[in-house]
């Protein structure tokens, strides 16, 4: 008998006859309906004589030659910042993937931004909640809560921030080399290039109103920018405590931090097989609209088969190579390949797993538009159901079921 992967390799070479004898015993779904390379007979089925871009195509082996178990026509679960156009200004750049770019991504849009040391993302606010993870360097954030209490903090690689909808905020790169981060908005339509900017508002308010509003002469606004700044180069901010005191005035401090050190927290689940770290409103109190899971999987390991009942999962791949299959009724099963900088998306309740198919650690963060992180594990369900019942469904004997993990391992090893 062949393993599934061997069958895939063999069928990809066009030797369909070799696998036909093995398939009946090894596979169920691919035979009915007759879909997939394993069912292809005769020459020409598996070749692609048309135009090719081998550099691009070779990065998607699962699309080029799908596993025999894939079936149906699910919308694409893959997008990437790697091919998203950058808007570059002096001080940094940003690029985004919204629902306009990635049709399935209705609950979350993503932004990847770089700020130089001293580079400023100007003071602004917007309709959506803003959740972010730092992927490089150091950044100073400022935000005001609804009771006028300011919060100023520095974040480093692995840290998160969360700004509620409408809360005014800013970001600025620190030394030595600024920062890079990924922002998620809790709305697939949210657009980083269309936020409410402080410079725009002042430029479009009559000077005499500015004079009344701020209680100073109108001519003190003579030099305000006529066009917005969005991202611009500033001076590297100094001591954090001094900035905090300067912003605080006579207001009390905010009761909750708007930042969270996810990368250095104790994992929710951890073993030699990897780790899962969670940040949601239970431990990151202000993050009432967004939950996240940072998943680290060793080579050959698999983020176990599971689903999420309360939200879609928007994934950002931080490192390594992942291969994810998403399952839905139909049946539909779609496998795609993910590398650093790529985005994955799984609609709520769709079953999925992510395998580390590289030879280095694979890490991604799953982001959910929900106050709490929630999941159902397939093995946890099937080991907490009467074994006789499960055995009758799957033609697997009870002794085998007794060996399945019943402790929600999260990540399973190479095996
Ligand atoms: Mn913002
Ligand atoms: Mn998941």
Would you give an account of this structure?
This protein has 415 residues and is of the alpha+beta class. The chain folds into three domains: 1-71, no CATH class; 83-259, Jelly Rolls (Sandwich); 266-412, Jelly Rolls (Sandwich), CATH 2.60.120. The chain has ten helices and 25 strands. It has helices at 4-12, 16-26, 54-57, 61-64, 198-203, 207-214, 240-248, 378-383, 387-394, 398-401, and strands spanning 78-80, 87-89, 92-97, 109-115, 119-125, 130-144, 150-156, 160-163, 169-173, 179-185, 196-197, 231-233, 259-260, 269-271, 274-279, 291-297, 302-307, 313-319, 322-328, 332-338, 342-346, 351-356, 362-368, 376-377, 411-412. Strands 2, 3, 4, 5, 6, 7, 8, 9, 10, 11, 12 and 13 form a twelve-stranded antiparallel beta sheet that branches. Helix 1 runs antiparallel to helix 2 (16-26). It is elongated, with a radius of gyration of 25 Å. The chain binds manganese (II) ion (2 copies). One manganese (II) ion is lined by residues 306, 308, 313, 352, 366.
